[in-house]
Design goal:
single chain; about 5% helix; globular
Length: about 110
């Protein structure tokens, strides 16, 4: 088996954020084991849920159990032309490209 360096999860990334309707997802729980209907807000700060691309998520999965991935529950600041939002990673996005794409879930 080839020893491949995991994709970086540190620093700043540029790319596209997209949105999908999580009510159409077939499970009540995310890849990280978080109940999809649960609020992630902290006090008066609105926290949006997000999915990280597979290339940056999968190498950090512990013992093949995605809910043990240390990326689960990590937060990121997403900046765009209309402002910025804080997201918490609770899912993975198989179709998203490395370092270029996250999905905002709510």
């Amino acid at each position: 088996m080839e020893n491949v360096e995991p994709a970086s999860i540190e620093g700043e990334f540029q790319g596209q954020a997209t949105y999908y309707n999580e009510t159409k997802v077939s499970s009540d729980y995310s890849t990280c084991g978080i109940e999809r209907a649960r609020s992630l807000d902290e006090g008066d700060q609105k926290i949006y849920t997000a999915a990280l691309n597979q290339a940056q998520f999968d190498p950090y999965t512990v013992d093949g159990i995605p809910s043990n991935n240390p990326i689960c529950q990590k937060k990121a600041l997403v900046k765009g032309p209309e402002g910025e939002v804080t997201v918490r990673f609770v899912d993975r996005c198989p179709e998203c490209k490395e370092g270029k794409h996250i999905k905002r879930l709510n």
